[in-house]
Task: structure prediction
Amino acid sequence: MSTHEEEDDTGPSVDSTDPEVRIAARRLRIIKRTELAHRETMGEDPNAKKKEDKEEQSKSRKQIEESRQRLTKLKTDGTELVTNVRVAGDSREALRRTEEEENLRQRTEKLEAEAKAGVERFEEITKKWESAHNRDVPQELQDLLMQQQSLCDAMIDDKNKLITDFQLVARCAHNLKIKLGKQEKQYREENQNLADDYKRITEQFKELQKKCNMTLLFSCSSFLENVGPITSEASAKKSVSAHQVLQEVMSSTKSSIQGEADESELGEGDAEIEDDEAKKLSMKTIKQVLELLCDESGFLVESKLNKLLQPLESDERSLMKLDAIFAALGIETEEDIHKLATYFLQFKQVQTKSADKAGEVEDELALQEGTLKPESRGEGTLVKTTGTVTEGLDQKPPTKEVEGDIDEREADAEVAKVTGEEEEVASVASSLKSIADSLIHPNDVLKALTDFVQDHHYPSKDKGKYQTFKIISGVERDDSEDEAYWKKYASVLTSKDEKVWSALLTGFDKYSEVLNNRSKLISETDALRQQNAELRMLLHQYINSKVNNELEIPPTRVLNLEFNG
Amino acid sequence: MTEPPLTDSQASEEKKDDADEKGSVKSSGSHKDKRIPSPALSTKDDAAADARNMRRIIAEDPDWSLATVPLLSELCVSHIVAEFENHPKLDELLPKYKTKVLEKISTEIPLKVVSHLVSDEGYWKRRCKARWEICDVSKYDASWKRMFFERHLENIIEHFVPETTQPNEIEELMPLAAPYIQKLEIKQLLPPVKEEQMRPLDDMSDTGSESGDNLPSIDHFEFSLVLDRLPHLQEFHVTYGVRDCGMNFEWNLFQFTNRDCLLLSKCVKKCSTLKVFKLHKSKVDDDKVRVLVSHILDHPSLEELDLGHNMIGDHGARAIGKLLNNHSKLVKLNLCNNKIRANGAGAIGHALTKNTTLKFLNLRLNRLGDDGGQAIGRALLKNSTLEEINMGSNDVTEPTAAVLSQVVVQNSTLKIINLSCNRLGPDGGKQLQEGMEENSTVIEMDLRLTESGQESEYCINQILKKNQERERELRLGDDMKQG
Result:
């Protein structure tokens, strides 16, 4: 190719006969021209461009330089920052070494001084030994010996002192070691303790869980007790009258049962008395009751609370205790407290009642008197009302004993009226005693409370509990007494009663049938009567109408004829 | 399908080994064509063959797969991989099969088999990564194989318990590993386990530091086992002590015995390729350093010696001075954290005046004092090779600074001076500043915690910056010339 081009360059290529050569030559020419033009521009421009380049380069260089310096600075700063740590450590170590050196120097100085002094003393002592050889008098020799000994002792003491001094210093490091050991031991113990605590707490938790299960079982059994009292009562009484059972079933609270029973047995007057009594339980009685409650039902208070209450004064303590007890019993209002108080009084009634079948009425009356008495005595203002009550009682005296009692009471009331306030103090004292007497025995508090809780627990709650307990404790439930319990209800109705009742039923059924027939007939008769009256009216109209006169044979005449005929 | 060019011997070996492929390989020696295995031989092939005849069954055959019959070459490769431990074949294979085999062979294959056979970095990388979590190959000249063997040997030595561990393992390993090891970094050496060491702790407090001396022979690993057989060893670091001993600390865990020292010194002397030798934190005292130095005098290749964090005093320093006095080719010497005082410094200084090789000298954390500092300083007035000196934390003060200010005026080779943690004081700082004003070579001067005064420090820093720029320009100029 190169030779070809050369030919083109040198030879008259454009005029060549070969068209291809011509074309090639032309192309070359064009290239050359453009190259020339390019060179021209290059020849002019480069100067201007170089200037710009220089400017740009200087700018970029500046920038590069700045960045480089910045980077160097960052690098050195960073290194310095990091090595600062090392330098600080070195510095501390150097300082420590200097101190150590100083200490060492001091120690050596001390030792050297000591050694020097020791040598001097030793020389002194040896000199004396030499002189000792010259002595002949034993006494003098003895003295000298003693002297020598004391000198030796002093020297030894000095050395010992120095030794102890150094040991003390050494002990400091030693102590540190011991301290470290102790601390380690302590931490290990702490760790052990914590581990033990953890174990204990886990165990406690497990126990608590167990207890919780137990409590569930217990509450389930307490439900059974709910049924229980009836059973026990029944077993005590052997047979319950149908009347009573019916009432028990029908009434929701025992107090109402009692009230009804009293009503039926004692009449309206007595019922009044009881209502009054419930309302008028004196503050003192209440207080007594509360004290009793506070003393006897400590089990309702959590042991933790008891611990907390220990430092408090007795008043405050009992207050807090009562609060806890009330919370446990679900007592919220004053009324509840009054209700509770009645239990503490009434409970005795129930007890006596169940204990003594025959003298039910009398006993109850006596009991009520018991409760009434202190009131009438204790509060002068009450005397009047009691008076009316006694009047009520007078009107309907069920038994002689009651009458007698009431008479007595009346007399008392009158005395109180007469003596007035002077007697009051004494009577208050005696009343307190009598109240105390009338309150239930502390041992029975639990029973009273159980009764109270049973009666005042909301039935809906009981139901819910019943259901849950049934599910939980179906297996564990003690059903030994169930049979007896339910059997009792089987025998509630005697055969005689049953006969009477069934006869009554059939009789009433027939009666109702008859009555139904009668009512039907009555309505039928009424309808017929009305029809008759209407017909009569119609007939009357016909007879009295004017058409009759116009007719040849008036129907009225026909009627008359018929009637006559 | 291309058949792998298996050799006769290989084929016959396979014949012995594998019953399954027996049929296919039996006549491989003479006829390559017959090596294609009959599909009916393997279970998979059976399924495929059946499938062709009984189409309807295909869908129901749970073992049937779309994968085609593996190539015989692949089968062979997998077989070679599986049997590599017993019958290693590598160099006979074509490159592409070789890479396949290298990719697949286990990292658990005994070193006996692979160490010389396999040079592929990929394999050694796999093996390193399988064994260690952190692998910084840049420290090993980017050679994974070197890394593996060095770390492997280090690991064995570090866990070697004298008189308990059998040296067999090392004996066996040495011929395999030796050619690839250039550097050994032994971070700990265990002492022999002895019953009598288990004394009650209470004794410790009384006996204290002497306890180690009571036991005559608690010598450590003998390096002659290893160092004598490493032809390419260039760098050797060792510490006679136990790492991570925690609360089991006892002084005699850190005992560099005389015998240890003697044996080590002999090994180092023999190791004529060694360039870097570091012996730190090993309680090297004067006597031991003298033994060591006496052995490494006129060492043919040693360029860097590091005896940092030991207990070298003046006598040891004197020995080192002798070493520096034209009895070595040392370029770098590190004596930081020792107990060298004025006398030792004097000896080293004297050596420096005659030395023409040493460029880096570290005397940090010694006890030179002003006498020692001045001695070194005066030596630097005459020396013209040393580029970097560290005299940090040496209890030197103003007089040394005065000498050094002369040094920076006269000396033109010194580039880095560290004087940190020395109480030079404002006067010392000023003197240094005056000296520096006539200097143009020093590019770093550490004056931290020297109390040399802010003004002096600032001025010196300005000069240093200037010098750095000049140095850089010079370097660039050199580069340009070379370019």
User: Anything to note?
Assistant: The radius of gyration of chain B is 32 Å. Chain B touches chain A through 14 residues (CB under 8 Å). The mean pLDDT of chain B is 83. The longest strand of chain B covers residues 235-239.
